[in-house]
Amino acid sequence: MDLPNRFVLPPAALLPHEALTSAPSAPLDVETDEKEKPKHPHEMTPEEIRARIIELGFEGDAARFEEFCERLRNGLPPGTCVAVRGSAVTGVRWEDGAPFDAKGKGTSDLDITLIGDQVMGCWNPDGFYIPALHTKPAGDEYPDMAPPLEPLRRELQALAGRPVNFQATNNLVLYVRDILMGQPYFMLIEPEPALSTE
Length: 198
Known about the structure:
disordered N terminus, disordered C terminus, Beta Polymerase, domain 2, alpha+beta, two-stranded antiparallel sheet, 7 helices
């Protein structure tokens, strides 16, 4: 299955530096420190970002990743676009710079953003940060946030072997999160091209 490779990244967003592990009296090994930091997505090709998502989120199993995307495509309302964001894209947690799965195998989640008016209708009326624009996350902590999507979310969670969260938004909100808040994302499912009426 051919998957889209387009991605949108902030032009100058920087990730937090990891804490130095050497003793205070030890000389700073700049080269070693640089090797330990994950490469920022802005410096990576779409193929490299996709490979990182597969390596981190699916233990390097490309077939499982493809199945994950196919189940998203088949299980969501028609026309829904899908993006993945968070530490599966950057390699580190946005809040504190901790590496992916820092607390053990399968502990980091996959943050899946769903884009489309129809999919946003799956959320409860009180499940929005911004009405009709940006929802609250649906996950294990709040399984009743988007009841029609809960079976799919649990199915994907079992397939990935780690927590999966859904959040719906529109393109404007996603752009603001990316550009203004430094949270890169990678498109898994692009909008289908409009059919020509000619």
